[in-house]
Write a structure and sequence with these properties.
213 residues, alpha/beta, Rossmann fold
Length: 213
């Protein structure tokens, strides 16, 4: 009964971190043992295409590159649930998120038939935080981000994704060259919608952490 919670944002005290903390509390509410990891604390690279994981004499489903991400990957494989959140930059999750995804999934993906070497089951909750409004996400981003859900399907579990849209990026917009945004409207969203997003993150964390092996 273990849930790994990952903040893939470089910020440890803002929207994504708060969403992931809520998801963690949801997991704990159903009895899961949790661990919270900030990817920004680690030193690592994405997949280096060394292809050691594809060698016939090597155990399948293992990333053989050794750095700070090595232990995180093993913890995910041993878990029942992964809850991961990232802000969206230029329509994509952070580079740290992508690096983890590459390392985590490439080693379990068979180059013989495209199946998964992984024999466990890890439920996955994916949270995206973004400056974009919900309508823009639905019309221009949702389909593209669905490819991430497909890759996580190699972990054989249930997958849920949730967008947290139109977020407040800074506390005082007057100090920045950010005239394209209204702090008043952002703060309204913070009051009316953001608490609902936090509540939903809690629910998803709880729901996915019930699906134990």
């Amino acid at each position: 009964m273990k849930t790994i919670v990952i903040n893939a944002s470089p910020r440890k005290k803002w929207n994504t971190a708060e969403v992931m903390e809520a998801a963690q509390k949801g997991a704990e509410s159903v009895g899961a043992e949790t661990e919270f990891i900030n990817l920004s604390d680690l030193v690592f690279k994405g997949c280096r295409s060394c292809l050691v994981c594809k060698k016939k004499d090597k155990t399948k489903g293992k990333c053989y590159w050794n750095d700070d991400l090595t232990e995180v990957i093993e913890k995910i494989f041993d878990a029942d649930c992964l809850l991961i959140g990232s802000p969206i930059y230029f329509g994509e999750p952070t580079s740290e998120f992508r690096a983890l995804l590459e390392r985590l999934i490439f080693c379990v993906m068979s180059y013989d038939d495209g199946s998964s070497y992984f024999r466990g089951k890890v439920n996955v909750g994916i949270f995206y935080t973004m400056n974009a409004p919900r309508q823009f996400y639905e019309e221009s981003m949702k389909d593209n981000l669905s490819s991430i859900e497909f890759l996580f399907s190699y972990l054989n579990g249930e997958i849920k994704s949730y967008p947290v849209c139109d977020t407040l990026q800074v506390g005082d917009y007057s100090k920045y060259n950010m005239g394209g945004f209204s702090q008043e409207l952002k703060e309204k969203q913070l009051v009316l919608q953001y608490p609902k997003d936090i509540e939903e993150a809690f629910k998803i964390g709880a729901e996915l952490s019930k699906g134990f092996k």
